[in-house]
Amino acid sequence: MDFRFSAEDEAFRAEVRSWLGEHLVGDYAELKGAGGPGREHEGFDVRLQWERLLGEHGWIGLGWPAPFGRGVPLMQQVIFHEEYAKADAPHRVNHIGEQLLAPTVLALGTDAQRERFLPPIAQGRELWCQGYSEPDAGSDLANVKTRAVKEGDEWVVTGQKVWTSLAHVADWCFVIARTEDGSTRHRGLSYLLVPMKQPGIDIRPIVQLTGTSEFNEVFFDGARTAVDNVVGTPGDGWRVAMATLGFERGVATLGQQIGFARELDAVVQLARRTGAIDDPIVDDRIAAAWAGLQVIRHFALASLANPTPGAEASIAKLLWANWHQQLGELAMAVQGAAATQVGDDGELDELQRLFLFARSDTIYGGSNEIQRDIIARRMLGLPRG
Ligand SMILES: Cc1cc2nc3c(=O)[nH]c(=O)nc-3n(C[C@H](O)[C@H](O)[C@H](O)COP(=O)(O)OP(=O)(O)OC[C@H]3O[C@@H](n4cnc5c(N)ncnc54)[C@H](O)[C@@H]3O)c2cc1C
């Protein structure tokens, strides 16, 4: 793949920069860098307005085909995410809708579903959450026990999901539920689109290490959704669920790396201030972190060239999750004893939050062990242990 940018790409970059320069002002500029992992509570209402402004100007669903999006080529999508991250614009409130649900509906949904669900995502008007994990179905997702039965022209959903990020602000949830009586494992599951704001749904926040609470338990007790709100055919939900996971490795990860570079820079600045930079071991770790980030970036760019990445996505996940977790550890080493103190208001600073939240990087989106298992079996052909 040729990674050089064409004249059109550069013109697009100028358009993105100029739009961000003009619009990332006032209340929005005050929220630069706000939101994201461990910080989803920050300025939520203003970030929602920002999402709608992005939508109004056609910046959501850039790669989706017309009439739903602008059909922008891959390199320009990368440029958008890079420029967005360079501008330190607020973290987005609906990445689950835009990056996970929308590509799934585009690939496997019906025309009616595309027309119903894509425009409100593109306008920032409907937010989504992902209802996969359950108390006994995390890594072992095929153990899903949530059930949905058809009653007239509706599915009636009963069961419990857990770790559901942003469920408390979501309008809709894509839920993996068992729809065939007596079915087990991967068979008999369906991928349902369920409205969240209804009486049969109880959302209970879970407090995280960071003291914030951006994921939840979600209890479904007779929650309802229209019979047509199933993506793919009923009983074929496993295939659809796996397709969604494939989209987690989107072009947005290139933007994520610019955020990582900013965090590394914050660690270097701190090391200069505290004098830790004079410690050759700290220097060594900083250099290793910098080199690791180059590897992550080159691997991500190279895998964009592969339309069916398969197990490569597991390598990318392992690389960035471990890197980010180690950066959090380095940040604490650089802070020294101060790392154990919190301000009078009980608030963590940016690096303390990074350290604590990064503990989850090697769990969500598939744990390290699961990623290694995929690499061992699908790439190396090793036997199942
Ligand atoms: C911050 C965060 C946000 C999340 N957001 C969402 C969300 O929005 N929606 C959603 O559905 N889920 C979400 N999750 C859940 C996440 O997908 C699960 O936590 C993850 O899949 C692991 O499942 P589990 O927690 O049940 O752990 P388990 O599956 O019980 O695993 C426990 C440990 O055993 C290991 N293990 C399990 N099976 C194997 C095996 N076969 N071989 C080797 N080791 C194994 C795991 O690696 C892990 O170390 C989120 C999790 C976190 C931390």
Q: What would your notes on this structure say?
A:
The protein is globular. The protein has helices spanning 7-23, 26-30, 44-56, 74-86, 95-108, 111-122, 237-246, 252-274, 280-304, 312-335, 350-357, 368-379; strands at 128-131, 147-151, 154-161, 172-178, 189-195, 201-206, 215-226, 230-231. The longest helix has 25 residues, at 280-304. Helix 5 crosses helix 7 (237-246), helix 8 packs antiparallel against helix 9 (280-304) and helix 10 packs antiparallel against helix 12. 46% of the residues lie in helices and 13% in strands. By secondary structure, the protein is α+β, with helices and mostly antiparallel strands. The strands form two sheets. Strands 1-4-5-8 form a four-stranded mixed sheet. The protein has a four-stranded antiparallel sheet with strand order 2-3-7-6, with no helix packed on it. A hairpin with an 8-residue loop joins strand 6 and strand 7 (215-226). The structure holds flavin-adenine dinucleotide. Flavin-adenine dinucleotide (FAD) binds at residues 129-133, 138-140, 163-165, 215, 360, 363-364, 367, 369-370, 373.
Outline of the structure:
The chain is 46% helix and 13% strand. It has twelve helices and eight strands.
Percentage of residues in strands: 5-15%
Order of helices and strands: HHHHHHEEEEEEEEHHHHHH
**What ligands can be seen in this structure?**
flavin-adenine dinucleotide
Task: Tell me about the largest β-sheet.
Answer: 4 strands, mixed
Number of helices: 12
What characteristic shape results from the CA principal axes?
globular
**Order of the strands making up the biggest sheet:** 1-4-5-8
Helix percent band: 40-55%
- Rg, rounded, reads 21 Å
Distance between the termini: 37 Å
What structural category characterises the helix and strand content?
Answer: alpha+beta
Low-confidence stretches: none
Residue-averaged pLDDT, rounded? Answer: 94
Number of strands: 8
